[in-house]
Amino acid sequence: MSESTYRIQGETGEWEVVIGLEVHAQVTSNAKLFSGAATAFGAEPNSQVSLIDAAMPGMLPTPNQECIRQAVRTGMAIGAVINKWSRFDRKNYFYADLPQGYQISQLFHPLVGEGQIEISLDDKDPEANVKTIGIERIHVEQDAGKLMHDQHPTRSYVDLNRAGVALMEIVSKPDMRSPQEAGAYLSKLRAILRYVGSCDGNMDQGSMRADVNVSVRKPGAEFGTRTETKNVNSVRFVMQTVEIEARRQVEVLEAGGKIVQETRLFDPDKGETRSMRSKEDAHDYRYFPDPDLLPLELDDAFLEECRASLPELPDAKRRRYEQALGLSAYNAATLTADADTARWFEALLAEGARIQKKGEQEVARASANWLLSDLYGALNRLNKDLDTSPVSPEQGAELLALAADGTLSGPLAKQVFEIMLETGDAAGKIVEERGLKQTSDTGAIEAVIAEILAKNPGQLEQYRGGKEALFGFFVGQTMKAMAGKANPAVVNELLKKALAG
């Protein structure tokens, strides 16, 4: 559903929703933003806390260059302005899981300025229904720790492992007008981060989460008062948050109430948002330049190194798959929507091109169809993904090569594939050990055909009497008698001769 058609129907008519997302993405790096502490997910509570993270007296922060590099690379990937001069600020507020009593962030002079992301709402034709979503800024900041309220009946526990972890806060402009656009934007942003390698995008582990800003208005009117729903951790939940919060606001306004600028939480179990606290403004945090940190000054050599390190990005890869490899728009979009899928496909394609004596486009189309249909179908059935696939790209390429050169028929290839899934063995090994090679031995096939015709005189008479649809019956009987190992093309040719006789 496009921006122009998504409306909320209220008692007083149609309402338009206005959406902006603030995405917090944990930076992939070797340490925290201002300390050397590790950032591994799932570590024992308080086992990854340096003296700096714990805000011990006299500890001074030092910026981690890799964190800055990854944020710059992310900005470049979305065509954003990279500010050669930026500065850290202190955001003052008290939480029990923030030992310093302030957060080091960037308000006035962020590392990355304006950029943009293109989204499409048409899976079958990614070039159709395209919309550009503006990015206002990307700033770098440190994360807080985590409070745990369910470990003890009367006490709350504090885990500081996340305290000081580097985050990129990627702030969109209020350019989205439907839950679908918000979902498409978040999915596309996640894909770009994973391609770049600046964030793993694992929303279920908290390394990427979104604050969802929602307001409603009569179509074309001034922006309404917005609410911010914090820490939404999946694309589906972001879309639900938009719809639920927008409908709530419409109901409040139509009942004569006012929308309060506040921070809310999304409860997926109850399907509702609820108030958390009033929304503070910037002056409430008493921002000022951090006196312990010098401004960041980036030179041209550093920026050039960052730009040179960028990979081929999703949109460019998708267009190459369509134009150079001849893939359908849908297959190209599906293969490039996730970095891991694209890497797996390219490994499959590279190995297939090496061992098959066919054109690149032919190999690419066969590889794409097999991956998206056969392999994905099997992995879904087995509740696995590409990372845990029993079949490697090299093994898949060997299977496709055996099918392409006539060693395996379509049914035999499927049979061998099932055995590969069960055993992890290579296709060639399975074919040799189990005698599953397709035969084109005309003498053997002719003998089987003669036997089939002798056993089915009634059908033979009907066929020769003009019932040509029975040709498929004879093909099926022949293939069955040869356990699917006969070359179908040879079977068809020899059957036509025998039936005409």
Topology (elements, then pairings):
Elements: E1 8-10, E2 13-26, H1 65-77, E3 85-86, E4 89-92, E5 102-105, E6 115-120, E7 130-142, E8 146-148, E9 157-159, E10 166-172, H2 179-196, E11 208-217, E12 227-232, H3 235-254, E13 262-267, E14 272-278, E15 288-289, E16 296-297, H4 300-308, H5 314-323, H6 329-336, H7 339-355, H8 360-382, H9 393-404, H10 410-423, H11 427-434, H12 442-455, H13 457-464, H14 471-481, H15 488-500
Parallel strand pairs: 12-13
Antiparallel strand pairs: 1-2, 2-10, 2-11, 3-16, 4-5, 4-15, 6-7, 7-10, 8-9, 11-12, 13-14
Domain Asn/Gln amidotransferase: 343-499
Subunit structure: Heterotrimer of A, B and C subunits.
GO molecular function, one term: transferase activity
Q: Show unreliable segments.
A: none
Helix content: 25-40%
Proportion of beta-strand residues:
15-25%
Total DSSP E strands:
16
Characterize the overall form. Answer: elongated
Cα separation of the termini: 61 Å
Q: Give the tally of structural domains.
A: 3
The major sheet is characterized as: 9 strands, mixed
Rg, Cα atoms, Å: 30 Å
Q: Strand pairing plus helix content: what structural class?
A: alpha+beta
> Number of DSSP helices?
15
Question: What's the rounded overall pLDDT mean?
Answer: 92
Structural summary, described in words:
The chain has helices spanning 65-77, 179-196, 235-254, 300-308, 314-323, 329-336, 339-355, 360-382, 393-404, 410-423, 427-434, 442-455, 457-464, 471-481, 488-500; strands at 8-10, 13-26, 85-86, 89-92, 102-105, 115-120, 130-142, 146-148, 157-159, 166-172, 208-217, 227-232, 262-267, 272-278, 288-289, 296-297. It has 3 domains: 14-283, no CATH class; 311-434, no CATH class; 442-500, Arc Repressor Mutant, subunit A, CATH 1.10.10. It starts with 7 loop residues before the first strand and ends with a helix. α2 (179-196) packs antiparallel against α3. It is elongated. A hairpin with a 4-residue loop joins β13 and β14. It contains 15 helices and 16 strands. The chain has 501 residues and is an alpha+beta fold. The mean pLDDT is 92.
